[in-house]
Ricin B lectin domain-containing protein (Chitinophaga rupis), 111 residues
Amino acid sequence: MYEDNGQVKYSAGNSGNQYRWVQETVNGHIRFKNLATSHYLNIEHLYPYAESTDVPNTYYSSYWKLESYNGNVRLKNEWQNTYLNVENQGGFAQCTAVPDFFESSQWILQN
């Protein structure tokens, strides 16, 4: 995943800091910061795509819970209780309700 003008998109490539996300814990909640822009993964405006924008660290739209499933991780948004996924294959990540067995909502987090 990478940030492109405030949208979180995906592609087969993964070079450059726009593809890197740093996991942070703020006020006991997990947030993901884009290394290139310092913007945070969020769903503040409930767009059809996940956002990467500058949101205050008190906004639940940027808080995520990590859930283990089948050796992978699912990212559950604390505000809407929906999951980050690429199910619709529209070129961007979205945050919707999808079953846990859908691989489109399963991620591998790397150090």
Remarks:
- The two ends are 15 Å apart (CA to CA).
- The chain is about 0% helix and 40% strand.
- The chain has one domain: 2-105.
- The longest strand covers residues 21-26.
